Each structure stands twice: as C-alpha cells, then as structure tokens.
Amino acid sequence: MSKYGEYVLITDSTCDMPAKLAEHYNLEVFPMVFLMQGKAYSHYLDAREMSLKEFYSKLKSGVLSQTTQISYHSYMEFFEPFLKSGKDVLYICFSSGLSGTYNTSKIAARDLLEKYPDRKINIVDSRCASVGEGLLMYHICEKYVNDKPDMTELTDYAESIKFNVCHWFVVDDIEQLKRGGRISALTATFAKALQIKPLISVDNDGKLVNVGKVRGSNNVYDVLIKKLETYGEDIENQVVLVGHANYPEGAQELKKRVKKLVKDVIICDIGPVIGTHVGSGMLALPFMGQRVLE
C-alpha cells in the first residue's frame, strides 16, 4: 500500500486536458502516437511535435492520419525510471474499448514487477475517451492532491467513479467520418444535405456509440445542455469540461451557456487521437452523472 508521495499518477495524452492543468496536479502524461505522411508523431498535451492548428489543417486538406496503440517497449521505458527511483505507479489508461493499450500495459507491468518485486503498479481501465477521460482525471487529480490518499485508496476511487463520467460529443466533419470508414459515402451525402450531425456517447465497455442525430448547428448547444440537465447529478456544484476539435468559437459559446448551470467550465482541445476520427468542428460536453445512452 503506497502512501501519497511514494507513487506517481500517470495517464495518456488522450485525456485531452490542458497541459497547464496536468502540470498543476503533477500528473505524468504518456504521449500517444499518430502517423501522418509516413512520419510518427508523439502527441503531448502541449502539442510540441505538431500543433493542433497544423494537424487539423492537414486533416482538412485530405492528409490521412492514423492512430496506433502504445507499444510494450514504450511502456517499459516510461514506467521503469519511476520504479527504479523507488516509486510505485498508478496508471489510468485510455479505454480498452477503443485501444489495445490497456492489455499491453498489463503485460509490461507484469514483466517490470519481476525486475522490481518490491514495487507496485496499479492499472485502471478508464472506459473513458478524450475529454471524458480528462474529466475522470480531473476528479482523480483533485483527490490525489487534496486528500493525499494512498495508492490503493486512489485506485479504488478511480474504479468507483469511472462509469459516472457521461460523454456527449457532436461531430461536424462528416467527410472525416466517411474517410475513416465510420459511415458510407451515401450516408455522408444525405447527412451533409440535411445538416445532420451524429451525436456520440461512450458505453460501459468504453466504446464510442452513435446514439442519435442533431439537425442544424444551432441545435448542438441545446442538445448537449439537455443531456447535462437530464443525466447530470448535483449539476450546480460540478466542474465540467467543454472539448472542441479546432472549433474555439463553438467551445466559447457552449461554455457561456453551460456556465449558468454549473460551478465552473474548463475548455479543452481535442487532440489527434480522437481528432483523426472526427475531424474539425466536434464539440463535447462530459459531466458526472448517469451514463445512459439515449
């Protein structure tokens, strides 16, 4: 049982938290990799290898982006220095429903513990994605810094709240969904003509689920806020995240409307891992409540 200060808290850059917020909590963030034009880029929260502006510009121009899971050796190299320095590891991992990284991290952890038998590595499958994962990490970090729990307590806390993270995303870039094979060319044509935008959530397996359609840009804000009002719990005391994929004006408008209902709103940029699949214009509103898909 590791006491506070004797273990390090780690997550992936798929959490899409602002870099300064992660730094504030002393959160270690594992960079995720995406591929563009034959080159691999590690995405850190500060987007040091490729700015998000450049990423979305390339995507819009038709450049193909691909995502890849974290390798076994990458986990070994990232975790080992902490173990070597005498610290244990609590890793909150990107959803197993969207990536094989969880299983890979478990294998790496098993092998590292053979080398460092006195150390501990706890791994939590977040079953969350993007700013939903970011909201989960916000709550975990708040407890980590303010309550100073031991590693077992923080692990149990993460497991106890992860299914209370409600993910709601509205996708604008139908062409990117078509390019990624998520929808057919015919469906994309009709969706564009009718100004229909997919409404996406995350189920308890941590998978993205298309749960509805939003017609017209002006209705996006109302739909997302209605989900918060319907399924959010203790809304007026919540800190919620507003995520956007290269759509700052939309994020500001959503923040303005949501701020009347909640304690605080944090705006976050959607990074390349989710951005690869949804393209520019996506808006997201994760909050704590009942994870209901309807």
Helix and strand arrangement:
Layout: E1 7-12, H1 19-24, E2 28-30, E3 32-36, E4 39-43, H2 52-60, E5 65-68, H3 72-84, E6 88-93, H4 101-115, E7 121-125, H5 130-146, H6 151-161, E8 165-166, E9 169-170, H7 174-179, H8 185-193, E10 196-202, E11 208-215, H9 218-231, E12 239-244, H10 248-258, E13 264-269, H11 272-278, E14 283-284, E15 287-288
Helix pairs in contact: 3-4, 5-6
Write a concise keyword list for the protein shown above.
294 residues, four-stranded parallel sheet, single chain, globular, alpha/beta, six-stranded mixed sheet
Task: Tell me about the largest β-sheet.
Answer: 6 strands, mixed
- As a whole number of angstroms, the C-alpha radius of gyration is 19 Å
Strand content: 15-25%
Q: What is the element string, with H for helices and E for strands? A: EHEEEHEHEHEHHEEHHEEHEHEHEE
The counted number of beta strands is 15
What does this structure look like?
There is one protein chain. The protein contains 11 helices and 15 strands. The chain is an alpha/beta fold. The radius of gyration is 19 Å and the shape is globular. Helix 5 runs antiparallel to helix 6 (151-161). A 6-stranded mixed beta sheet has the order 11-10-9-14-12-13, sandwiched between helices. A 4-stranded parallel beta sheet has the order 2-1-6-7, with helices on both faces. The chain starts with 6 loop residues before the first strand and ends in a 6-residue tail after the last strand. It has helices at 19-24, 52-60, 72-84, 101-115, 130-146, 151-161, 174-179, 185-193, 218-231, 248-258, 272-278, and strands at residues 7-12, 28-30, 32-36, 39-43, 65-68, 88-93, 121-125, 165-166, 169-170, 196-202, 208-215, 239-244, 264-269, 283-284, 287-288.
